[in-house]
Amino acid sequence: MSDLIQRRFMSMFDTAVEGLWIMTPDRQVAFFNHTFYQQFPFNPEGASLSDWTDLIHPDDRHLFKDNVDKQLNFSDGDKKVLSQYRVRKKDGSYCWIEALGAMKRDDQGEYMVGNHRDITSQKKLESSIRRLAFSDKVSGLPNRDQLKIDLQTRKSDVTLLHIHLKRIQSYINQFGELVIQEVIDRTIQCLDIFQPFNSKFYRSSTETFTVVLYSPIPEQQLAELCQKFIHMFSKHADQNGALYIDGVCIGAYPCKDLLQDPDEVINWAAQTSEYAYRNEESQWTICNDEIQKKVKRYFYIERKLKSAIKNDEISVRFQPIINAKTRELVSFEALARWDKSKIGEIYPDEFIPVAERKGLISDLGKKVLTQASGFIAYYNKIRNSDIKVNVNVSVLQLLDGTFPDQALEIVRGEGATTNSVVLELTESVLLEDKCQAMNQLRQLQSFGFQLAMDDFGSGHSSVTGFFKLPFQQLKIDRELVNDSMKEAEPYAYLEFLTMLCSIRGIGVTIEGIETEEMMERFIQMDVSSFQGYLIAKPLTLESAMEYRGYGISHNDNVCSIEQLVIPNIA
Ligand code: C2E
Ligand code: MG
Ligand code: MG
């Protein structure tokens, strides 16, 4: 190539948008393209590698030097090394440079060639896409994806707090996102109490804020912080009227396993928070070993109840109710048990609320009524008697218009009669639409069912409300019974109530009789019947068949249990 052509060829680089460079093994660099390099505060003529290195951002310099050393060690000419770093410009700002370099060899020896490209706008775009992808646009806080990344790269034990603002989504649906901006701002203000514990805040879903505490914190202090947060939050809500949420609950999960998967850590905190919401009065729970077992149990029930009902895993126990004067058996109360579960026996207080919430109570109720009716038919046939069985009915079942007809069909289908079945309803029936509840009760009564008010005195007891409804039996709640053993006023109240019931021909049953002393006390009150652990705990079908009464031996039986063929109903 002639000198002229070579000069003209070189001048072409001055118009290129990228910088080009050649470096010899003694690290002398020739920078081509003045238009590109004039933005940097150095003289490209006769510059060395260290002049360029001095302009590189201190945070990126180390990596840059490593890359150069790596490159110089390559003898393979095809191997290219790409690196990205920040370089200081004349105005003091930094731009992002992408450098691509390769080792070459000719008859004069080895050298390195490469180019520099300004990728600042590409980096800005990447970072704004990243911001959009990893942050919540309403609060500006990092989102769940960022939380997962941070948990994945954690270097120490952490505590996760899952803060659930209840039903906020419903308010957003009604009024739009803007309405909840105030709630979000106030929540962030309240989160400030976690600042001293090396914390980071996230809005991990529409209804959830997550706090990660990186400093260790004793359980007692954590409990105090949760309490304080809820207190501050409620105070804000009170002061500001409508804060567009229905409350707040917190699940705290201290994670001591660095290898635990981020999704699992997040789920534990979330499940603890839901458990707190449904089961704890305090609105917050810390997931220690004991709570972890309860949370597992709670979610097992949530997941498996539907199939348990379908697959007949729910059976019935029969708790005797005896005549207060003769102590003879008058009835059994049918109590549901989930006893074929993988986590052992589960009690109704755990699964009935779940069944009600998940719309399964009707199916569950039918199974219990079927087993109870089958038992009545079987018992009466074998014992040649006229036994009654009390069956609990949720108010949700009662309000289903088809319930009376279905109940009638089940009882008849099992060969029992409706007047052997006492349907127990709780006081919540008094709170329901009076007209609808009354119509259903009247229809059940017209079919021959007997009706009992269960757990009277445990909630919003209304004596006048009760006497307006067609009940034949009043069952007094265990707590009220216990109180009346200790104090004169509840005892006097029960005495008066029993008298009113006796005038109206309504039988009074005392629940929760656990001692002889209790029994004696209520015999004096002239109540009709007793139920409680002193008399008998809920019995299996086989034991119930043997039971005759309190202090009455089953040797008086017409035939022994061995002679009975037990039907497959429990
Ligand atoms: P409940 O209807 O008031 O039934 C009495 C509960 O008190 C039973 O608990 C029984 O085991 C317990 N109990 C009886 N005597 C004593 C005693 O002397 N001391 C103590 N501490 N407890 C006693 P269980 O079986 O756990 O049932 C709890 C509740 O679950 C029932 O209260 C009832 O409201 C509900 N339930 C049970 N089975 C069903 C069902 O099939 N359907 C519906 N809807 N609810 C049911
Ligand atoms: Mg009951
Ligand atoms: Mg009861």
UniProtKB/TrEMBL annotation:
In Swiss-Prot or TrEMBL terms, this protein is called: Sensor domain-containing phosphodiesterase
What taxonomic lineage is listed for the species of origin?
Bacteria, Pseudomonadati, Pseudomonadota, Gammaproteobacteria, Vibrionales
According to the entry, every stretch annotated as the EAL domain falls at: 298-552
PROSITE patterns per UniProt: EAL, PAC
Q: Where is coiled-coil annotated? A: none
User: Could you state a single Gene Ontology molecular function term?
Assistant: cyclic-guanylate-specific phosphodiesterase activity
Matches recorded under Gene3D superfamilies: 3.30.70.270, EAL domain, PAS domain
A UniProt-annotated Pfam family: EAL
Ranges for domain PAC: 81-131
Q: Which organism is it from?
A: Vibrio albus
